[in-house]
Amino acid sequence: MSTKRKTVAVHAGAQLTGSKSQPVVPPIHVSAVSFFDNSDELDAALDGKDYVYSRIAAPNAALLEEAVAALEGAEACVAYSSGMAALRAVFDVQNLKAGDVVVMPADGYGVTRSLFKSLAARSGVRIEALLLSEASAPERIVALRPKLVLAESVTNPLLRVPDIQALSRACREVGAAFAVDATFPSPYGHRAHELGADYAVQSTTKWLNGHSDALGGTVSGTREKMAPLRAARLFAGDVLGPFEAWLTLRGVRTLPVRMKAHCEHAAHVAKRLSESPLVARVHYPGLASHPDHAVAARMLEGGFGGMVAFDIQGAGRPECFRFLEAVKLARAAPSLGDVGTLVMHAASASARRMTPEERQAAGIGESLIRVSVGLEDPDDIADDLLAAVAKAVKR
């Protein structure tokens, strides 16, 4: 089969191994338990060589794993019940000890930071939060000699773009495991594993699913790296259900055409916002004014993404809350990747679990709005956002 993303998205993960039946749409396998007439076959299935108990392996999740691995350009993939479960699994399999160092983005998703801080505190691990898009980040990693480095290929919510290849080289130099949360660009826009990530992480709830109707997460990489994750999931039980896997695979089929439109619409909306005197700053990697534009042009081969963030001129939390109440087309919701436009106040949502000091160090101010640009007419989206800004600041 072709390795081109559009073809892979439509055809990968279509048929279970060992079956000659070829349904156009894979069925939903709801049974959690199967039986075998042959005891040897049952014994083999209990080792994961067939489907007998959905905590060990399940058909719909297996099809999704095959499809996501192909999209990521990876050998294997492990699916989880959520993106956070996937991130926790990556942390857990490192077998970190007291005194070990974990590096993560200072300006990344606040819930991930809270999760890693909590896990680290239990085992005496030290968390170092760095601005990984800064040119000095690889040198800082080498100096810290961490056991694990987590990066976001596009940070949430400020849309900074680190040089994944440079970070990967630094990790290899010191023997650190390198994980990249590549949710924002999706596997269509950015193959983190091919750029050097040991673990390419997706919250499949977002662009992969694309319709806000199924939670999920995946980790992709080599078979060697995925084997401990799969073994640990057997005991942790954080498996992806059949309905969620089926819905997500359905979303994967249209990922390339959706992402192309999301990227085009986001670029148009970012330009419109940048022309407004009521907008202090627009954060979008596709703009020449973005500090990481050159890196983004090299890293994000599928486009600059469907996310835009902007600061409302002179606004604080009250004005931003008025903005959320004023939008008509967009919806105020703490997620992204839907076919419809979603907006949120970053400091009270994605960065909610960060301390005020952490938000200040990251550059996440009270005036920051994050937008997941949908598939509506881009001028309708821009008009709605700009009208809501005007109402928020009462102009």
Architecture overview:
The chain is of the alpha/beta class. The chain has helices at 5-11, 39-45, 59-72, 83-92, 110-123, 137-144, 164-174, 186-189, 223-236, 242-252, 255-274, 293-299, 317-326, 356-362, 378-392; strands spanning 76-80, 101-105, 126-130, 148-152, 177-181, 199-203, 217-221, 279-283, 307-312, 331-332, 342-345, 368-372. It has a seven-stranded mixed beta sheet, sandwiched between helices. A five-stranded mixed beta sheet has the order 8-9-12-11-10, with helices on one face. It is globular and about 75 Å long. It starts with a helix and ends with a helix.
Q: How far do the termini sit from each other?
A: 56 Å
Structural class, from secondary structure content?
A: alpha/beta
Given as residue ranges, the uncertain stretches (5+ residues, pLDDT < 50) are none
Question: Helicity range of the residues?
Answer: 40-55%
Strand content: 5-15%
User: What best-fitting shape do the alpha-carbon axes yield?
Assistant: globular
User: Within the largest sheet, what's the order of strands?
Assistant: 1-7-6-5-4-2-3
**Main β sheet profile:** 7 strands, mixed
By DSSP, the count of extended strands is: 12
Contiguous helical run count: 15
Q: Round the Cα radius of gyration to an integer and report it.
A: 21 Å
The mean pLDDT is 95
SSE order: HHHEHEHEHEHEHEEHHHEHEHEEHEH
Describe the protein's topology.
Layout lengths: L4 H7 L27 H7 L13 H14 L3 E5 L2 H10 L8 E5 L4 H14 L2 E5 L6 H8 L3 E5 L11 H11 L2 E5 L4 H4 L9 E5 L13 E5 L1 H14 L5 H11 L2 H20 L4 E5 L9 H7 L7 E6 L4 H10 L4 E2 L9 E4 L10 H7 L5 E5 L5 H15 L3
